[in-house]
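Mods, move this if it's the wrong board.
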Amino acid sequence: MHEMLEERVKKNPDREMFVFVSDNERVTFAELKKRIIDLAAGFLLKLGLRRGDRIAVLGANHVEWPLITGAARAIGVGVANMILGHTPQTFRGMMSQISCKALFITRSPDTLYPMVCEIIPGLSESIPGDLNSKEFPDLKKVIAAGSNCKGGMLNFDNISISGHEEDVAKAAKKVTIDDIILCF
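Not the wrong board. Structure tokens:
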């Protein structure tokens, strides 16, 4: 996927890849590549995620979704997309099966924070980036965008790191299709 995006950037860097009407945001191929690389560098350097790790994404379809997925795949991190509409108990069961190290929350709906606190007891009192959950021992970080970023969570906008394309490219060379497929 990383190589296919690179091809598209070379051919049509200024062509829009995504339009998120609800976010009032348009993303070109070149912008997408840069944002994915910067976010992947943040995954590696700030969050400590590595090839073979797993993350979950919960929320509605916003620009964060393809950025998180692209960054994770670039460095070989498996992504479990959890679509809204399930009960907190169902999400808790999914989270138990995934054994993820990080949970990402998109910017909406604004009601996600209370639900996530119900899924992960003690989140609101935890130190952002250092979650210690008895139910989810592997889960250490909850990252949220927009108004969902509250107690115990890291801010999605502060994860990206610019200027580390070589680190991401080095990690991407080791990625196989088995690294990024996550089924449950």
